[in-house]
Amino acid sequence: MTWMESFRTSWSAVYSHALRSMLTILGILIGIAAVILTVGLGLGTQLDVSAQISSLGSNLLIVAPGSSTSTTGARGGFGTSATLTIKDAEALTSTVNAPDISGVAPESTTSLSLTANDTNWTTTVTGTTTAWTSVRQRTLARGAFFTQAQADASAAVVVLGSETANELFGTQNVVGQSVVISDKTFQVVGVLATAGSDSSSNLDDVAIVPFSTAATDLVGGTASNAVSTIYLQAASDTQLSAAYQEADALLLNLHSISSTDDADFTISSQDALVSTATAVYQTLTILLTGVAGLSLLVGGIGVMNIMLVSVSERTREIGLRKALGAPPWAIRRQFLIEAAILGLSGGILGAVIGVVAALTLPAVIGSSIVVSPLAVGLSIGVAIAIGIVFGVYPATRAAKLAPIDALRSE
Amino acid sequence: MVEPLTNPLEADAPGPVIELIDAGKTYTSGTIEFEALKGINLAIHEGEYVAIMGPSGSGKSTIMNILGCLDTLTRGQYRLGGTDVEELDEIELASVRNQQIGFVFQGFNLLSSLPAWRNVELPLVYGHVPREERKKRASRALERVGLGDRLDNKPGEMSGGQQQRVAVARALVGEPTMILADEPTGNLDSVSTRDVLSLFDELNNLGRTIVLITHELEVAQRARRIVWVKDGAIVRDEVNAA
Ligand SMILES: Nc1ncnc2c1ncn2[C@@H]1O[C@H](COP(=O)(O)OP(=O)(O)O)[C@@H](O)[C@H]1O
Ligand SMILES: [Mg+2]
């Protein structure tokens, strides 16, 4: 009996029990599609996140208060005493001490309510310097960013994000309008061009004011000089690590800290953020894939179940084939191929459905799904393997049937 | 060696193709033992047409299963073509069934999902005959049994007599040395019975060894030798005078 012959026999068995075969295939199909989708979603999210982090701006370093290297001791951090101040940011602009840093944009952020006419809208009010647009790589859709003169004068001017403008005025054509923030009237001088959102915030729902204005009119008290983040731009790609070292040395010196290990601030680069985010999403992907893999296991048990039914239902046929000269291996092969066909069909259909879903779903759920050919190939392989592994026991049972007992069965 | 033997007792005949020596079979189900064959001796030579005759429950099917290598003895010896079948492993037994034996069962035992010619070619499939030749030989065998126009019919689309003729075609397609038929006419009407029995006559005339199991005297009398079985023992072994 040739392989082709075994295959033909097995195929006709699968085909002649179409409904039952379809249901078995469905079990595998769902598992395979789920694996392809979860792996694709995981990879896609990783890509999205790295793209978002990269969109923060090129050659960017981010200085944040608090230590990332140690959990011991009181070194300050988010929400505790202000460890990063506008003084730090000013020091970093020095072309003597930090020649590789070409741009410095400190940010102090507060969530505040804005009022225009009778409309209220709460958003993140950011106090910063004029370098902000170039460091954060933002452009203006209307009007202009506030000027150095306005900053020096602590002028009551504000630049709105496109969404903020829409929420407050119903239009973006708002240059020259007034907005009340914390009882003080600000004049809108510009509206930012749309930028989407990054992993933590909506970049289009913001209100940007001069740092000095924020410090005097919006924050006040001891916290008024504090900044929540300082964005640094290196002069070029190759100067990134030099810029890092300059910033580190300068800030340690300013804070009178002798060892990097004791630093009360953290400098991170996009690379570091990307790899952290990637690690998180990788773990998540592995977990989800494990869950999807479980459904594959259930599908495999379905194959075994159906194969056992198939064997006991066809005991007489097995007996007859043996009487006509089928050796045990031919019977075993016939049932193994049958199980493999179920697995393979489930694998291919599952791959097709998984890929189609991966191509259509992103439009609906808004996050990318990456179809990796490796994942598709692997899961089809796994589907066949599942068919065979779970088919071994039923096939061996069929092969071991004594011809006479099989023939006698009714 | 196609020369038909008319007299099994002929002294200078070649060694028997089938030889049961003190053959016993005891069925055990749980603690209950049942001795279905009580040490029988039987020799059948190539080209013989033997009927095994006896009432229901006398052990005829047991004999047929032993002769067809479908079941094993619990006592004594079964020699097929001079070889003790006990020495053969499962794969060799499969090959013996495939090459040397053609079965015809009372219940036809056709695969209902396959058309007639595919049922008939089954022994050739396991005998490694190439595909094109299988179809040719299956068609020829079906023509021999008068079903040349029913190659593509499934068993469900045929009468009992036609189905049994398909089964006969399947038994002869591999050109085995012997044909074992267990009550082949048990489910057939008289016309179909006559058809099937005349097929056996023809096959035997061509030199095929035939062992026909039946409980009907009328059927047994088509054979040239009748072996009478009762309660697991041979009670009479005679050349059919009729
Ligand atoms: N597998 C079995 N287990 C137990 N007893 C059996 C089995 N097969 C047959 N027998 C018994 O052996 C006896 C002979 O059976 P069988 O050879 O089928 O008779 P026949 O074909 O002449 O009607 C019967 O009494 C039957 O009940
Ligand atoms: Mg019987």
Automatic annotation (TrEMBL), chain A:
InterPro entries: ABC3_permease_C, MacB_PCD, Macrolide_Exporter_MacB. The chain crosses the membrane at residues 21-43, 286-311, 339-365, 371-393. Residues 21-249 form the MacB-like periplasmic core domain. Its main location: membrane. GO terms for molecular function: transmembrane transporter activity. It is a multi-pass membrane protein. It is found in: Cell membrane. One of its GO terms (cellular component) is plasma membrane. It holds the Pfam family FtsX. Keywords: Cell membrane, Membrane, Transmembrane, Transmembrane helix. Residues 291-403 form the ABC3 transporter permease C-terminal domain. Belongs to the ABC-4 integral membrane protein family. This is ABC transporter permease.
From TrEMBL, chain B:
Residues 18-241 form the ABC transporter domain. SMART domains: AAA (SM00382). Pfam families: ABC_tran (PF00005). SUPFAM superfamilies: P-loop containing nucleoside triphosphate hydrolases (SSF52540). Gene3D superfamilies: P-loop containing nucleotide triphosphate hydrolases. Keywords: ATP-binding, Nucleotide-binding, Transport. PROSITE patterns: ABC_TRANSPORTER_1, ABC_TRANSPORTER_2. It comes from the Bacteria. InterPro entries: AAA+_ATPase, ABC_transporter-like_ATP-bd, ABC_transporter-like_CS, ABC_transpr_LolD-like, MacB-like_ATP-bd, P-loop_NTPase. One of its GO terms (molecular function) is ATP binding. This is ABC transporter ATP-binding protein.
